[in-house]
Amino acid sequence: MVKFTILAGGFAQFIATYIFDSDAGSLTLVKQNPTGENPSAVNEVSPVGNLQSFVVGTDGGLNLVDTISSGGNGPTFTNPLSTGEVTAMNFGSPNSALVATDPKDPLHFLKTSPVVEFPVGNGPSNPHMSLEFNGEVFVPDLGADKIWRLVRDGAPGNFKVQGQIDVAAGSGPRHIAIHDDILFVVSETVSTLTAMYIPPAPNGTALPLIANVSTIPQNNLNAQFAAAEILISTPTSQFPNPLIYVSNRNLGPEFDPRGDTIAIFEFKNTTSAPTDRSSTNQKRMLRRNRRDIESRASSSAFSLLAQVPTGLKQIRSMVLGPVTGGGDEFLIAGANVDGGVVMLRRVDGGRNLTEVVRNKDIANRTSFVFV
């Protein structure tokens, strides 16, 4: 018997604990752990949010250890960095916190980490995620239509913007993933999935897109869609091909009774990666690689494998289980409005999903962590 403990945040004053028994096919709500307000990922509150740390007990219960301000409005995403900081992306402010932790006790926050201000002037800025890659932290900014590139600037907790990757105006980049040095971007406003090479840093340019596809399922609804989450699976013997999973939120006013979908894509790339990253040859390299990528991009493509209805209204977050213990056979997703929490099984090598079990004890959950 394999049992998985899963923590689930949402717009309430608690984090829920679920136990998933993969043999029995059961998903049981076992605890509602008190927290600060709206722990959708962090304490997503206005005018200033909070970042909290907890100890997870053997029974799935949470004990609060420390709390610190995020330094901005409505933080909507957090993750730990390899350098010891924990991020808090302030969706309602043009800034983000990368909070240093005590190296002797990482559950305690240091109080000396300044926020990173994004240079947007009076323009919109809605940072929505952070992703560490090759010594940088990438931050997609839904309002500014940029992906900021942050680097450590001195002591722990101190970061600066060293450049950005510009994306199409009005596209609204929400979440990102990187695989084989290719940056995949899910844009909320236009509901697209794009792929591009990462240009050398620091700069404010972007290489041409390798591929671009809509994530919206075929429908006849009077509805507005807003893509939300992206996951790329880790290749294993059971699931040998890395596949891309994107959640589609239907914001209405008309809704599909089968619920929002998860789109599954396979990506095939026929272009060549940039080879010369030296600053002295950067302009020449960018011109050469633009020509190469543009000439080959038409044969690089996303293949849509499936649009899987989930029974969830406004699916916002989803997570693949851990590879250890075979957890990556499963994907958990939750509704932002109603539909509860659903556990799905990856079948056909991950090219499709089938429902294992659903729990409606809580109508909506917006973030998940396997522990």
Classify the secondary structure makeup into a structural class. mainly beta
Q: What summary fits the major beta sheet?
A: 4 strands, antiparallel
Number of strands: 28
Gyration radius (Cα, Å) is 20 Å
Return the string of H and E elements. EEEEEEEEEEEEEEEEEEEEEEHEEEEEE
| Strand adjacency order, main sheet | 3-2-1-28
pLDDT below 50 for ≥5 consecutive residues: which ranges?
none
Helix content: under 10%
Approximate shape: globular
Q: State the separation between the terminal residues, measured CA to CA.
A: 17 Å
- Mean pLDDT across the residues is 91
Number of continuous helical runs:
1
Portion in strands: over 45%
Task: Kindly describe this structure.
This protein has about 375 residues and is mainly beta. It is about 5% helix and about 50% strand. The chain is built from 1 helix and 28 strands. The strands form 8 sheets. A 4-stranded antiparallel β-sheet has the order 3-2-1-28, with no helix packed on it. The protein has a 4-stranded antiparallel β-sheet with strand order 6-7-8-11, with no helix packed on it. It has a 4-stranded antiparallel β-sheet with strand order 12-13-14-15, with no helix packed on it. It is globular.
